[in-house]
Amino acid sequence: MRTQIVKWVSIFGLLSAALFWNSGATFQPALNLFVCMAAAVVTLQAFQAGKGAVVGAFAVIAFLFGAFAVAALVNPEQPAMRLGLCFGILLVVASVAAFAVSLTSLKPVKLRSMPSITDRNPGTLAV
């Protein structure tokens, strides 16, 4: 459930960045950092599910947004790397699409809250 919330919040953040592209410079470093962390969470979820292509895609997203976040944190006045016009919008749209696909393709693993007491232990002999 937590990963679903992280995915929805990152989709909302990326869409708001796309809508307010010209005035988004104030919250862009925070958004870059959050999308990097969200992509890392989805990468771990995809790794646990055994989906290699999704792991690779979200690792690239995490790396790119992480590089932009670090560049903005090192020099906030004039970052060396900035989401430019064409590349930035393309990266944001591709990331929204990737997070949207991950909502349907990566289902969270449902864990039991307590082990079943009626389940027989495998390998034991019945008396």
Strand content: under 5%
Number of DSSP helical runs: 4
From the alpha carbons, calculate the radius of gyration and give it in angstroms: 19 Å
Order of helices and strands: HHHH
Write down how many β-strands occur, each being a DSSP E stretch of 2 or more residues. Answer: 0
Which blocks of ≥5 consecutive residues have pLDDT under 50? none
The largest β sheet comes out as:
none
As for the number of domains, it is: 1
Describe this protein's structure:
- Helix 1 (2-19) packs antiparallel against helix 2 (28-49), helix 1 (2-19) runs antiparallel to helix 4 and helix 2 (28-49) packs antiparallel against helix 3.
- The longest helix is centred in the middle third of the chain and has 23 residues, at 52-74.
- The chain starts with a helix and ends in a 22-residue tail after the last helix.
- Helix content is 65%, strand content 0%.
- The radius of gyration is 19 Å and the shape is elongated.
- The mean pLDDT is 79.
- The protein has one domain (2-105).
- With 127 residues, the protein is mainly alpha-helical.
Give the topology:
Layout: H1 2-19, H2 28-49, H3 52-74, H4 86-105
Helix pairs in contact: 1-2, 1-4, 2-3, 3-4
Defining traits:
127 residues, mainly alpha, 4 helices
Q: How would you summarize what this structure contains?
A:
The chain is mainly alpha-helical and 127 residues long.
